[in-house]
Amino acid sequence: MTYVAKKCGVCFQPPSIILIYKDDSKDKTRQRIMPIRNFSKFSDCCMAAEQLKNNPRHKAYLEGVSLHQLQKLYSLLKGYLGGESLAESLEKFRQEETIDPEEDMNKLDDKELAKRKSIMDELFEKNRKKKDDPDFIYDIEVEFPQDEQLESCGWDAESGEEI
Question: The pTM is what?
Fold first, then answer.
C-alpha cells in the first residue's frame, strides 16, 4: 500500500499531528491523527520528530513528510505549551531557520554550529544551478562596477620595501 501525503498539521488540544493523505490502492483521501504523548515545553523537537517518523505505526504514512516539517510542527506545539501565540512561535521558528551574516559562529557550541551548517547546506542546494537546469550557463563572466577608487592597504605598500 502506498500513501501520498497531501497536508500535515498540528492540533494543540489534544496535542497531535494530523496528516491528510491519499490512499493510492483505494483512491480515497483520508485523515490520520497521531497523538503526541510525553511531550512538554522542555522536550527536544528534533528527537521527537525522528521518533514519530520512525515509529512503526506511522512510518508508512509519514514517508512523504520531511523531517524538517515535523520538526517545525513540534516547534509550534512547544511554543504553544510554553504560552506563546501561534504568530510568536512562527516568528521564532523563522528566526532560528535563518542565518544572520553578522553572527559570530566561532562562539557557537557544536550543536548550534551543526544546525547552522545544515541550514546553509540546504540553502546552497536549493539555489545551486545544475547542468540539467534550463537556465544553466557554463562560464559566466561578470564585470563589477568600480564607482569608487580602490583603497590601498597598508600591508601591501610596505611589503615592497622589505625585500
Answer: 0.69
What are the two backbone dihedrals, phi and then psi, of residue 9, each rounded to the nearest 5 degrees? -150, 180
Q: What DSSP letter does each residue of 67-106 carry, written as one string?
A: HHHHHHHHHHHHHHHTT--HHHHHHHHHHHTS--TTS-GG
Burial of 78 (0-12, 13-18, 19+ CB in 10 A): buried
The strand pair at 3-11 and 28-35 is best described as unpaired
Q: Which amino acid is at 145?
A: P
Contact 18, 32 (CB under 8 A): yes
Instruction: Read off the C-alpha cell for 10.
Output: 498540528
**Cell numbers placing 37:** 504523548
- 83 torsion bin: left (phi>0), alpha (psi -120 to 50), beta (else): left
How many Å apart are CA 109 and CA 95, to the nearest integer? 18
pLDDT tens, per residue, the chain with 163 residues: 688 999 999 999 999 999 999 988 888 999 999 999 999 889 998 899 999 999 999 999 999 898 889 999 999 999 999 999 999 988 888 888 888 888 888 998 998 888 888 888 888 888 888 888 888 888 888 887 877 666 666 666 555 555 5
Given the C-alpha cell 494543540, which residue does it identify? 12
